[in-house]
Amino acid sequence: MSWRNYISLCFVFLCAHTWLWGQEGCEQVGNIIRSVSSEPDGSGGYNTVIKWSEPADLPDNATGYIIYKFLGPPFCQEELVRVGLNTTSATLPGLAALGYTMALSTDIGREPLTRRHRAPEITAVRFDSCYYNATIRWKPYIGWETADTEYELHCIIDGGEDKVIAVALTDTVYVWNDAPSKALPLAIYVRALNKKDPGAFGHSRRWEGRSDFPPKPEYLTIRAIDYKEEEAQLSFKIDPATELNRFELQRTAGADFSTVYTFSDKSLTSYTDRPPGGAQQYRLVAVSACGQAVKQGDTLSLIALSLVQEGSQWALRWESVNTGSILYDLDRVRPDAERLLAGSGETSFADKVDYDIDSLQFCYTVGGRTGNGRESRSQQCAWYAPKVSMPDAVDPAGTERNVQTGRARNQFGPVVAADPKTYSYHLNIINRNAAVVADIYKEKDEDPLAPGKSWDGRLKNGQPAPDDVYSYRLTVRFDGGGQQVMTGIVTVMYSTN
Predict the structure, then answer these.
(1) What is the DSSP string of 137-164?
(2) I need a labelling partner for 18 at 20 to 30 A (CA). Which of 82, 227, 365, 380 fits?
(3) Per DSSP, what are the bridge partners of residue 469?
(4) What's the pTM value of the predicted model, to 2 decimals?
């Protein structure tokens, strides 16, 4: 071996020995530090605030504490300051990247209490203009057990109040999905907390900068929905200050929204949709340049209104899927305009129908007002079908009159619970051979009890029909276009009296 190689080998051995000696010399054998924080000094720089606890077994010859900057091997630490016993915190100028250690000083030297502590430190903040989020990464707090450490993220936007972004984090990376736009200066810092020592926490330095994506719209508001004749007329407003230029109108009848209209004109204020039915929800969504939804407006629900005829009344029921308390106004629009409910929380109503009416079409409107002044209105119209009844037998020889129907026993025809002037009808009587044995018409200006407006149980040749069972088909047409069709059987039977 040459002397040069020998010297090189000795040098490597000496360095390795020094490094190992340094590792042993940096051994952490105790701890009194509770937390280390990086705090602004008021002039653009930072101070380091160290807090500690007085040892439980403080010796009688203790004289104070020594605070060291941790250097790492081979030199381990550098003394910074000595403080007296009657304090448990110290503020030091600047930052020590590798952290701090402490020792208890006595009249004969020092007691080794040297566990290293270092505040958390933000290492990167990356903004994604596609998803409008920020990924924040930081170095962990050093000095506590990892299982005992959790983090909070805080932000200060445009010099405003301190806001918490996230709490109870155990990882050292976080995706902030509600980051502000580049129009606002932003400060972010990490706060470490010790779960076993509630009073112990450490702050990182603040990251300061701006995001690199355009401002989101402050509001995307659907102001009103007016549903009528199966069309939903939506009125909305988009924040004109937004720099985004793609928007989607979405609707759903269940848990998932789907896009029904895409547009780029932020001054657009209305759209007409033909929803499939039910209490649909609508919302506006602002979309980034790469097609990701970055801002969703509040939802507004179409009101589903139904009319069901139950006897001599309309049973009205309605529903919406708006959240919160909603008050409804219910109006009958026709035939006689009348407000039926005002500012009510009810979702059903029974409207009694007067048989003596000129029009059989009924229209109702229900309007729901949300707490922030938005309104959804729905109108439904339906034709009222007066009760139509038919006897089940006819006696060609019977002339006794039924006081309830007004017809004699030899008059087979409909009894309609409506003004005779508001309806017409066509009655067919058919025998077992599918032959029409009677064709009867009643026009609107004719009396249903007049001769020829019902079947008298006779064939077309005037002869009494034989005892048998016959089929009938009745079509009643009402004013305004409504109609009712009935089919059934009628028995021809002769009385013995």
Answers:
(1) EEEPPBSS-GGGEEEEEEEEETT--EEE
(2) 82
(3) 491
(4) 0.59
